[in-house]
Structure to design on (230 residues):
């Protein structure tokens, strides 16, 4: 059974950097075959895909967030990370990490998710 | 970018009812749609992929149909545990996009 677990501060001050890590168990990121993604959900709202990192470190970001995003992967530790700079109150959300299919167009769905971590941006 | 328009935004139903949720893509995405169920305080759970394939462990009450731009998720017999919010997602191209969600509530 694949399990993902997000970790990171639940409170970030405006203009600072939001940093989260997702630890993976039950699958090895280095095996390839999947993208490792971040998504978020604003309170009471729908789902927004933030971006992915591959086992090789290749990234693809949502254009709406691209200028503030950095994602990285550590295959030796089997985890991947997100950094979102210059945060504002609009970045307050529940952040999820998830495993995303990567085999071909049509497989880009999310089959395993972390439980989510609420990040609040406030001074 | 491809947009997904989901309807209705909410539906009131009773145990035993048949519930249908629709999703329309802004362009042809073949069969590349996934459906998720989300319960309060929980992460979304994959129900259906490639429009009609039921994810392992998911009840056969959930049926997905459609191709091109129009897709449907049907819950054939609503059970108490099915009251939740449902999302469609286009899995064809990047960036992946979700519909706005449909909340299935108890009548």
């Amino acid at each position: 059974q694949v399990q993902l677990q997000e970790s990171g501060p639940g409170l970030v001050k405006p203009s600072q950097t939001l940093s989260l890590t997702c630890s993976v168990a039950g699958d090895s990121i280095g095996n390839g075959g999947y993208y490792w993604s971040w998504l978020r959900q604003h309170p009471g709202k729908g789902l927004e895909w933030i971006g992915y990192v591959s086992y090789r470190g290749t990234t693809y970001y949502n254009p709406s967030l691209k200028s503030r995003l950095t994602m990285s992967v550590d295959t030796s530790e089997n985890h991947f990370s997100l950094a979102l700079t210059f945060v504002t109150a609009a970045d307050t959300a529940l952040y999820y990490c998830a495993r995303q299919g990567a085999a071909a167009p049509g497989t880009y769905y999310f089959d395993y998710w972390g439980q989510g971590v609420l990040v609040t941006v406030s001074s | 970018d491809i947009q997904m328009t989901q309807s209705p935004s909410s539906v009131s139903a009773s145990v035993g009812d048949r519930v249908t949720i629709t999703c329309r893509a802004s362009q042809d995405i073949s069969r590349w749609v996934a459906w998720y169920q989300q319960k309060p305080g929980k992460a979304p759970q994959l129900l259906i992929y490639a429009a009609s394939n039921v994810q392992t462990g998911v009840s056969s009450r959930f049926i997905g149909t459609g191709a091109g731009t129009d897709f449907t998720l049907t819950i054939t017999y609503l059970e108490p545990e099915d009251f939740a919010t449902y999302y469609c997602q286009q899995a064809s191209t990047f960036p992946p996009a979700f519909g706005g969600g449909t909340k299935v509530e108890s009548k």
